[in-house]
Amino acid sequence: LNGHDSQIRRLVFIGRLARVQKRPDWILDIAKIAQLPTKFIGSGAELDSLKIKAGVLGVDAEFTGHILDPWKELREGDLLIVPSSFEGDGLVILEAISNKIPLLVSDISDFRRFHLKEEIYCNNVEDFANRISLYSNRINDLIVPIDDAVRILDSRGIEKVLERWNSLVAKFV
């Protein structure tokens, strides 16, 4: 990934297909507006309804189910979309940052804690679609810069996580 071609060619969703928390249906609405194909990597209760909606909207959507290493499925021109309404640890974002994958994410407090570039945060379907249009020929501008990536990934390192757990447990002992 991350070669010379910086055009957005496909939208990618990685995660559980859960309507309320993950909002995978947003991907289809965004893809319809942006006129881009999509790839869903994951499984869940919404799979059948997403397939139906893709057909109704006329969106070219591929559904792979759960894949152990989803990052091997991505190719040049793929843009990861993370439209969650709320999130636990944000592991998909951390893995995307670690793999230098361009991404757009929901503007929620769970993701704001990463302190990403402002242009990566989106508020709704239209905002995602507008951002895709704006960066359609500059996908690599949506890759988290290396200095930010190091800061974010270091803060999630095993030592830091253990330190926070130790601090939390100490409060109850």
Written overview of the protein:
There is one protein chain. With 173 residues, this protein is an alpha/beta fold. Helices cover 42% and strands 14% of the residues. It has 8 helices and 6 strands. Strands 3-2-1-4-5-6 form a 6-stranded parallel β-sheet, with helices on both faces. Helix 2 runs parallel beside helix 3.
Instruction: Please report which band the strand proportion falls in: under 5%, 5-15%, 15-25%, 25-35%, 35-45% or over 45%.
Output: 5-15%
The count of DSSP E runs of length 2 or more, i.e. the number of strands, is 6
Helix content: 40-55%
Inertia-based shape: globular
Kindly state the mean pLDDT as a whole number?
Answer: 91
Distance between the termini: 48 Å
Strand order of the largest sheet: 3-2-1-4-5-6
Number of helices: 8
Q: In terms of structural class, how would the helical and strand content be classed?
A: alpha/beta
Largest sheet: 6 strands, parallel
Low-confidence stretches: none
Taken in chain order, the helices and strands follow as EHHEHEEHEHEHHH
Tell me the Rg in angstroms: 17 Å
Characteristics:
8 helices; 42% helix; alpha/beta; 6-stranded parallel beta sheet; single chain; globular; 173 residues; 6 strands
Please provide a brief summary of the model.
The chain has helices at 19-22, 25-34, 47-57, 91-98, 109-112, 125-134, 146-155, 158-172; strands spanning 10-14, 38-41, 61-65, 78-82, 103-106, 121-122. It has 173 residues and is of the alpha/beta class.
